[in-house]
Amino acid sequence: MDFNQKSSSRSSSSVSASELSQYNTHLILALPSREYLTSNYKNYYSSFAQGLMNPQDKKVSLEIPLNTQMKIFAFLFKENYSMSELFSGTRTVGYYGESQTFSIGTQTNNLSLGITLIQVPGTGTDTGGGTDNTAPTASVTTATITTSGSAVVQSTETGTAYLVNTTVSVSNNFTSITGAADSQWNSVAISLANTNTNLPATGLADGTYKVYAVDAAANLSSTSSNSVTVDTTIPAGTFLLKWGSSGSGDGQFQSPRGVAVDSSANVYVADTNHRMQKFDSSGNFLLKWGSYGTGDGQFNRPGGVAVDSSGNVYVVDTYNHRMQKFDSSGNFLLKWGSQGTGDGQFQSPKGVAVDSSGNVYVADTNNSRIQKFSSGE
After folding, report:
1. Are 346 and 367 in contact (CB under 8 A)?
2. 305-307 and 313-317 beta bridge pairing
3. Can you tell me the distance from the alpha carbon of 252 to that of 254, in angstroms, rounded to the nearest whole number?
4. In whole angstroms, what separates CA 28 from the centre of its chain?
């Protein structure tokens, strides 16, 4: 397990390897996805698993449940502590962080999770000095969303942002938020200040929501001036948003032909500009891969696209008469197929789907048939 090495709530400078080497105890917790992040490593309601990571080989063994939405929380201490020593008292945390929400399925072979570290003020190489009593400022983009969507939020400091129903009475302590019913609030880690971050509306009740932010020193912001509306009664077919234009730049398209969505609501688009593009659910460009050609990771007018439960992306490379498989970052994994009429061959395939067992179904268009493959074939 590696950390995305960012430092304190008021800085975006990197944490050096020599700085991290001073932290001899790495506590790793697997917690339900609705748990919120603070520098208090005991401040949670329930835990799936706990373990101490070896700082040298960066390995930890955790026994976690399948098909459950969860996060990984990390806490770093300078002193050497056993698990019993950590929980028999309250020890000083130097850095802490959390992963994005994830779930492990029966088909999951590997999973990459980034954990951005936040420095506790007054520890490590933080030279800010003194006590941080300045609260961050929270904001949200006005929108109407369903529970499958996300609010786009920002905070002026790293920490945690909370999407809170306006019926909840919020005092000067964030526990007044987390003590409310689960259907009245959600949270997300803010790893980059003043940067759009998607805060999922999963499980929230209908209503008007505003945003609060908490920094590393547990300072709670005032409520955001703007709000979002969560409405699960939006009729099917109601227009929500659009993005893209004709062109070859990031976020532009030339006759896009295939689209798929992963479990984190990221959107993958097969663009006949001979490339794939990845967006978040609000249409913000995340990454792209591919170019014209016949090499690994190249395309000739890709068509269909599908995503499996592990986040792997299957692309129909239509006029190269083959399938290609990538991880969620666009790294090439494998390919199969050639032009022809035999088993495993294709004539301009255009569609693909993946079932819950990872089997891959390909619409072999000009051969007038469907072919089924295992995910590793």
Report:
1. yes
2. antiparallel
3. 7
4. 18
Classify burial at 245, counting beta carbons within 10 Å of its beta carbon; exposed 0-12, middle 13-18, buried 19 or more: exposed
What would you measure as the largest C-alpha separation in the chain, in angstroms? 73
Residue that the structure tokens 């703007």 belong to: 226
CA distances from 158 to 116, 118, 154, 237 (A): 10, 7, 9, 37
Cα separation, 374 vs 316, in Å, equals 15
- The two structure tokens encoding residue 323: 């399938």
Segment holding 20, helix H or strand E: helix 17-20
**Beta-carbon count within 10 A of 235 CB:** 5
C-alpha span between 92 and 69 (Å, rounded): 29
Q: What are 44's two structure tokens?
A: 């949670």
**In this predicted structure, what is the pLDDT of residue 266?**
93
Residues β-bridged to residue 140 = 153
Q: Which residue has the tokens 């520890």?
A: 123
Q: What is the pLDDT of residue 364?
A: 97
Taking phi first (over 0 means left), then psi (-120 to 50 degrees means alpha), and beta for anything else, what does residue 147 get?
alpha
Whether residue 8 contacts residue 126, with contact meaning beta carbons closer than 8 Å, is answered with: yes
CA distances (Å), 360 to each of 67, 341, 376, in order? 21, 18, 9
The two structure tokens encoding residue 243: 């993005």
**Cα–Cα distance measured from residue 186 to residue 176, given in angstroms and rounded to the nearest whole number:** 13
Give 177's DSSP letter: H
At 109-148, the pLDDT tens digits run: 777 777 878 877 666 554 444 556 788 999 999 999 988 8
DSSP 134: P
pLDDT tens digits, one per residue of 14-34: 567 777 888 899 999 998 877
- Please enumerate in sequence order all residues whose Cβ is within 8 A of that of 97, keeping only pairs 6 or more positions apart, or say none: 3, 4, 37, 73, 74, 115, 116, 117, 118, 189, 191
Q: Rounded mean pLDDT of 354-359?
A: 92
- pLDDT for 128 equals 45
The count of other CB atoms within 10 Å of the CB of residue 259 is 13
Strand order in the sheet with 275-279: 258-261, 267-271, 275-279, 285-289
